[in-house]
Write a structure and sequence with these properties.
The protein is of the alpha/beta class and about 400 residues long. It has 10 helices and 20 strands. It has 3 domains: about 60 residues, PUA domain (Archaeosine Trna-guanine Transglycosylase, Chain: A, domain 4), CATH 2.30.130.10; about 110 residues, Transcription Regulator spoIIAA (2-Layer Sandwich), CATH 3.30.750.80; about 190 residues, Vaccinia Virus protein VP39 (Rossmann fold, 3-Layer(aba) Sandwich). Bound molecules: S-adenosyl-L-homocysteine.
Length: about 400
């Protein structure tokens, strides 16, 4: 029997159903478990706590599969979890059989497969594995996905550096069916997108901003919009569709901007009303300031600035910097849609940083709306780490 026991008093988080077991909480390891092996977990007093995947190289030494009975982690187990995740998505309006729909089918710990992200882009799936458990069980996970989703192909995007912490090599490639070389089509709230599953960021796209993009589109009418960190132009496309006067799309990624340009045409939107600029946003905003430009609406959707706890202060300075610059560029009554995807920075701190920026810019601003994660990126109540995305829709004086 492969099993681990926890130190005295270190079973509290497991009892509260938090899925991580840190190396320092482990008292004894029995049966010589290897990378990704399933272990039974016991408290110091020998109470059964659950089944977990063992990860010998990681600080997070094991991740719980289940807190219930002693189950085998096999095909039937993944069938149950994946069926449940698909059913829950269906009840929230995400249809697995819709050939143009794009949504997250499995969101890691929050859906019961720790370290595994499964995204659907039209007829294809893109999978990112970040932990030992799903890594060694991937063949069976892919089999279940092929059977339950009716997808045409599954592509692995196991190329994140986070894998190194788990002692895993990076890897990409088609693991089921066929995945085209060229970007694949999908639709989001009636806006057409092309997703580069093979080379795009993350699994190919930022599905988590779907609701925020729609909201931005609703308030863009007649406005001059600056879309910072635009990637393939999402917020800007919604703004154009919503009747924006002009949209300025800015990103450092040439390949993302190329897709952004194609998407303006694909959606039949007026190309004369969009400007695409390849630039560093920090520098671009300063240039706008020096030229005395203003905008009626600015979107700030930067990459993660806080990668680790000790980067919090530096990250907060980064958020303050861009928000201060952006707020100063807002025309009277201008709207700012500002976001942070740094899980280590909570909404309270983020709001405080943006409030500091507004104060420094001598502007009064009102919160019109707060953004979180959409219903296909649910947060397990036992796993607050699942909450990473937050945003504010603000209007200036
Ligand atoms: N808003 C996008 C997602 C943004 S993700 C959407 O709705 O799909 C963050 C983007 O920031 C990425 O496209 C990345 O290329 C870009 N980026 C990162 N650092 C940057 C910088 N300093 N200046 C400009 N763009 C940057």
């Amino acid at each position: 029997m492969k099993a681990i026991t926890l130190k005295a008093g270190r079973d509290k988080s497991a009892i509260r159903r938090h899925p991580w077991i840190f190396s320092g909480a482990i008292d004894e390891v029995m049966g010589d478990p290897q990378l990704g092996d399933t272990v039974e977990v016991y408290s110091y007093n020998s109470d059964f706590l659950g089944m977990a995947a063992y990860s010998p190289a990681s600080q997070i030494r094991a991740r719980f599969w289940t807190f219930k009975e002693k189950t085998e982690i096999n095909k039937a187990f993944f069938e149950r979890i994946i069926e449940d995740a698909i059913e829950k998505r269906a009840a929230r309006g995400f249809d697995i059989h819709d050939k143009l729909a794009a949504f997250r089918i499995v969101f890691s710990e929050n859906d019961g497969i720790p370290g595994c992200i499964i995204d659907k882009y039209g007829e294809y799936l893109s999978v990112e594995i970040l932990a030992a458990g799903p890594e060694v069980n991937r063949a069976v996970i892919y089999k279940v996905l092929a059977e339950k989703t009716g997808c045409k192909g599954i592509y692995e995007r196991c190329d994140s550096d986070v894998r190194k912490k788990e002692g895993l090599e990076t890897r990409t490639g088609t693991v089921f069916g066929e995945v085209p070389e060229e970007p694949v089509p999908m639709e989001e709230n009636g806006v057409k997108f092309l997703i580069d599953i093979r080379n795009g960021h993350k699994t190919g796209y930022y599905l988590d901003q779907r609701d925020a993009r729609r909201r931005v589109g609703e308030v863009a009418k007649g406005r001059n919009v600056l879309n910072c960190f635009c990637y393939t132009g999402g917020f800007g496309l919604y703004a154009l569709k919503g009747g924006a006067e002009h949209v300025y799309q800015v990103d450092v990624s040439k390949s993302a901007l190329k897709i952004a340009k194609d998407l303006v045409m694909l959606n039949g939107l007026p190309t004369a009303k969009v400007t695409h600029t390849e630039a560093d946003v920090f520098m671009y905003l300063r240039k706008c300031r020096d030229r005395g430009e203003t905008f009626d609406m600015i979107v700030l959707d930067p990459p993660k600035f806080v990668e680790a706890k000790d980067h919090l202060e530096k990250g907060a300075r980064g958020y303050k910097d861009i928000n201060l610059l952006a707020i100063k560029l807002l025309a009277p009554g201008g709207i700012l849609a500002t976001f942070s995807c740094s899980g280590l920075m909570g909404m309270d701190l983020f709001q405080k940083v943006v409030a500091d920026a507004a104060a420094d810019a001598h502007r009064d601003m009102q919160i019109i709306e707060r953004f979180g994660q959409p219903a296909d990126h649910p947060v397990s109540l036992a796993f607050p780490e699942g909450q990473y995305l937050k945003g504010l829709l603000l209007q200036a004086d």
